[in-house]
Amino acid sequence: MIFSAADDGALALDLLPDWRALLGERADRLELEIGSGHGGFALGFARAQPDRALVAIEQRRKFADELRDRAAQRGHANLVVITGDGRLLAPRLFRAGSLAAVHVHFPDPWWKRRHHRRRLVDDGMSQLLFGLLAPGGLCDFRTDVERYALEAVERLEAIGFENEAGPGGFSDRPEGEIPSTREKRYLATGHPVWRLRLRKPAAGAPAPRHTGAP
C-alpha cells in the first residue's frame, strides 16, 4: 500500500501511479530515497524543500510506520512513505526518466559473495536507478564503509554515471546537505563518510556502458 503523509490514508498500489495527481506540481521534481531507516533525511527534506516531493521506501515496517506517523504529525504533504523492497517497488512506481534524484544512504554492504545480489549497487539495481533518473538527475550515495564506497564508485561510473568529483573521486559534503539519522552521529564524532554525487548524463550524451563485474 501507498500511504500519503498528506492525508494519512491508504491508496491502492497501482502500476505507475499518477504522482502529479497525488502531489500536484511538486511531482515535477520527484525524488526517491531507498532505505529511509529512522527517517532523518526524509523529514529534513520535507521540511527544507516544501516545493518538492520525496518518496521514501523502507523495508522494515516498524521504521516505515514511525516515519509515516511523524510526517503526518508535522503536516509534510510532500513526503510519501512506502513499506516494501525498493528493488521490487521502484520499477512499479516510477516511469523511466521521471526522477530528479535518488538517495541511497548507508546501505548494508552484504560482504558474503552469496549475498551480493542484495546490494543496492549491484549491476541490476544500478542500471535500474540510472534508467529511472531524468537526464542530469542526481544519484546521492553515502556509506561509512570505504571498501563498499570504492566498489560502488567503480560500478556506478561503469554504468554510465558522471562523477561530480571526477573519475573515482568522492565529494566533500555540500553546504546545506541534509544528513540522515545515522550520518548525524558521524558528523558529531568525525567518523568518515564516503560520499558520491553522480549525474546521469544530459540528453544527447553518449550511451551508458554496462559492466559484468561481480
Automatic annotation (TrEMBL):
UniProt-annotated binding residues for substrate: K112, D144
EC supergroup of this enzyme: transferase
Biased composition (Basic and acidic residues) is annotated at 172-184
Keyword S-adenosyl-L-methionine in annotation: yes
The Swiss-Prot or TrEMBL record annotates one GO molecular function as: tRNA (guanine(46)-N7)-methyltransferase activity
Q: Which residues form a coiled coil?
A: none
User: What is the protein name stated in its UniProt record?
Assistant: tRNA (guanine-N(7)-)-methyltransferase
Species this chain originates from: Anaeromyxobacter diazotrophicus
Output the lineage of the source organism: Bacteria, Pseudomonadati, Myxococcota, Myxococcia, Myxococcales
